[in-house]
Amino acid sequence: MTVIPSLNVPLLGVAVTPLNRAELLAHIRDAVQEGRQMLVAGHNLHSVYLWYSLPEFRDFYDRAGAVVVDGMPLLALLRIGQRARLRTEHRIGSTDWLDGLADLEGIQRVTLLGGTPAASTAVLRHLRSLGGDVAWQGIPGDPWRAEDVDEVAEEIRAHDPQVLLIGMGMPLQERIADQLAARLDVPVIATVGGALDQLGGTQSLAPRRLGTMGLEWAWRLATDPRRLAGRYLLEPMKLAALLMWRA
């Protein structure tokens, strides 16, 4: 299992691999070409909270080969605590790199798992419009039934992807990634959250400049307050309490 050297995030106590878009895509390309298995995940405050709250979630992240920085608070802590020369490009969400697979050398087959049937169709349409020689497979995952995992594994096996992208939300997507990894031989498995819905246009995608300013959370909260209020307004306080209790 490929593991890229990581940095520890001060105060939060989690490890990340601060890569930019080109570096992450290069690692994915190399893992595929060399036949190495690699898990790709992303850390933000939500995932840090789950890392402390759920042992199986923590285990998944600790085994991941690349855990990119998917949140400006984490990047800011790295810059200060590690005195690392990191730029805003080292904060990358899944929507920042996923479409780069379209013309990545050696990538010929990619499977997308997640979203409603309409969302799955929409993101496939978007990715195929990018050109390139990738054969994209889309499998809806909403609603997800645990008993469907074997059937889904067979669908994926028939496509024989080099990269499997799972966009089901945390911590469900990580659980499914482990279940499928035990059933399949896919070189790269990446958990990508809402990226499939966002790239397909079925979920609002924040302007990129807001991400570099650390305000993407505000955009997402304003566009979907019922679903995200707890994550953005209450969870940071719960995380702070957890960290204080463990100190």
From TrEMBL:
Keyword Methyltransferase among UniProt keywords: no
InterPro entries in the record:
WecG_TagA_CpsF (IPR004629)
Where are the coiled-coil regions? none
| Pfam families per UniProt | Glyco_tran_WecG
Q: Name one GO molecular function term.
A: hexosyltransferase activity
- UniProt keyword annotations, A-Z: Glycosyltransferase, Transferase
Q: Does the keyword Transferase apply?
A: yes
**Could you tell me what this protein is called?**
Glycosyl transferase
Q: Which organism is it from?
A: Nesterenkonia jeotgali
